[in-house]
Amino acid sequence: QVQLVESGGGSVQPGGSLRLSCKFSGSIFVLHNMGWYRQAPGKQRELVAQITNRNQTNYVDSVKGRFIISRDIARSTVTLQMNNLKPDETAVYYCVAHSTVFGTDYWGQGTQVTVSS
Fold it and tell me: Which of 9, 20, 41, 13 is nearest to 115 (CA)?
């Protein structure tokens, strides 16, 4: 069973940076596409960034040029570097693994990111 453990959330001032990490275990990392979603209070969950098992990346328009998603195969970890954060990006951020074999999605427990002065 796939397990995802996020870390790196916290509070930061507008314009600041945070780095989220997600540790993958329980299956074969390279057979999964990875992504980060976020859900702000009262809003729908949205895809922020994703990276395929071939290292192709995709970002929501609002974070392009500020966020970078990457994966470390040796450590079975996916990272989201978030720069120049804005207050409306305050949300719970979730790591997601999508099995390219079975089409199943696995979710982490989420990590809170708060952007406030």
Answer: 13
Buried b (16+ CB within 10 A) or exposed e, 48-82: bbbbebeeeeebeeebeeebbbebeeeebbbbbbb
| Secondary structure of residue 40 in the 3-state scheme | coil
The tens digit of pLDDT for each residue in 27-73 reads: 999 999 999 999 999 999 999 999 999 999 999 999 999 999 999 99
- The pair of structure tokens assigned to 98 is 């999508």
Both structure tokens of 91: 């949300």
Whether the Cβ atoms of residue 18 and residue 113 lie closer than 8 Å to each other: yes
Name the DSSP class of 76. T
